[in-house]
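Explain my protein.
***
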Amino acid sequence: MGHAWDIAVFRAVHFGLHQAWLDPIMRALSSPGRFKLPLLVLLGIAFILRGRRGRLGLIVLALTLACSDQVASKVLKPIVNRTRPSVEIADARPLFGVRHSRSFPSAHATNFFAAAPIIGYVFPQASVAAYVVAGAVSFSRVYVGDHWPSDVLAGALLGLLLGFTWRKALKRLE
């Protein structure tokens, strides 16, 4: 019964909102491919150009992401051992193919929401944008068929918890 809402919301997003013109956008949000490294380099440069706060922020961001990724992927996913929607829903059309890896929580959601408080602290003017990007990436994970809505919701909550914890550490370092 608890899984019924997950299936309903997954179907509403994955099937109900599916548009051919949205597919490349959602694929890029989920997996930026060859743009990933240049985007990370630009983000790193932006942090470094921010002075001492930026350099400290970059170190804390790297630690935050290392922590969030490991907690989501190496700790929680093996414990929960949840299958992906494309495995459970026969008519699912996953844009990246059927993946048999673990689903809960979404590491994408965890990592992007963990990064948002750090980015927002170092770049206050980009705070809203950081959360919007985190939300868009998380939404894309359901759209492309890789995650249940509860996977991204749990990942977002975990990410926020970790992000605000590490942001507090950054403030103390300053």
Observations:
- The mean pLDDT is 89.
- DSSP finds eight helices and no strands in the chain.
- The longest helix spans residues 52-80.
